[in-house]
């Protein structure tokens, strides 16, 4: 049996305040490995949200054709063209957290980058195509590091080899089953996102809005989780806070109705974080 904690301002974990002599070296270096051919938007959304939620440094390793557009949009991100997995090694050595998967694709290039990430000891977040590749072969999992899996119901069904209907019929149990099977912290996305771990810990977010049913909203969430881990939060706590501020920001967008773009979340997510966890004081 498990007890479910509902996420509220009273039950949420907090991000530490910044000391007055804080510098970027204290706030983590997040590496985003994402964006195969034709999917440069997913990687940029993840990297931008990571930067905008306070990571000290953000590097983006992506398919070469995305480099100039990403730099033009957000020059604070260190954008690296990566054609071969060996080119990831120096970036992995610098990283304090890695997010892998948004728009990665499932070709040989994607598979080799995922294998390089899985070999490192750094904490990692697996999203989107990283989850699809994992579902195809369990041996792709990292063996030396703590990790977070962020499936939507379709990806969760692939991870448990069942149907989306079965996942949705028992969302909490599904999240716990994935956490147990993969020994990971799991964020099962969709209306009322569930966060679970392999020790039967489980939290439920009752915030959020159907206006968030659009392309890229999950890519943004991955970047937020990476930002909070980079700034020193434990994995489970980072997931809870990230899911909550992402969902609350979605509610704010809902007042404008249909047509919200995932990038619109950036400003309201910053506001939510500041309201819950002020930067100083
Ligand atoms: N701008 C860019 O570059 C963008 C790039 N992107 C990248 O595209 C890649 C493919 O990712 P993807 O999620 O679009 O496809 P996929 O994994 O087949 O899942 C779809 C199926 O899953 C299910 N399902 C999902 N949510 C559900 C829910 N709440 N509730 C219930 N079911 C739900 C649903 O299954 P169904 O109900 O149809 O059985 C649905 O058909 C990936 O790398 C991603 O990062 C995107 O991020 C977009 C922006
Ligand atoms: N109806 C909804 N209610 C609340 N949140 C939603 C709803 N639909 C989508 N979301 C949220 O939006 C995000 C969508 O993520 P995902 O399906 O991975 O999209 P993408 O791959 O396009 O980025 C998740 O965080 C999910 O919880």
Automatic annotation (TrEMBL):
The keyword Methyltransferase appears for this protein: no
Domain of life according to the entry: Bacteria
TM regions (residue ranges): 26-47
Chain positions recorded as AMP binding sites: 189-193, 218
Reactions catalysed: (6S)-NADHX + ADP = AMP + phosphate + NADH + H(+); (6S)-NADPHX + ADP = AMP + phosphate + NADPH + H(+)
Domain spans labelled YjeF C-terminal: 7-276
Keyword Transport appears in the UniProt entry: no
CDD domains documented for this protein: YXKO-related (cd01171)
Residues where (6S)-NADPHX binds: 42, 103, 152, 219
Cross-referenced NCBIfam families: yjeF_cterm
Chain's role: Catalyzes the dehydration of the S-form of NAD(P)HX at the expense of ADP, which is converted to AMP. Together with NAD(P)HX epimerase, which catalyzes the epimerization of the S- and R-forms, the enzyme allows the repair of both epimers of NAD(P)HX, a damaged form of NAD(P)H that is a result of enzymatic or heat-dependent hydration.
Family: Belongs to the NnrD/CARKD family.
Subunit structure, as described in the record: Homotetramer.
Name of this protein: ADP-dependent (S)-NAD(P)H-hydrate dehydratase
Originating organism: Thiopseudomonas acetoxidans
Taxonomic path: Bacteria, Pseudomonadati, Pseudomonadota, Gammaproteobacteria, Pseudomonadales
Gene: nnrD
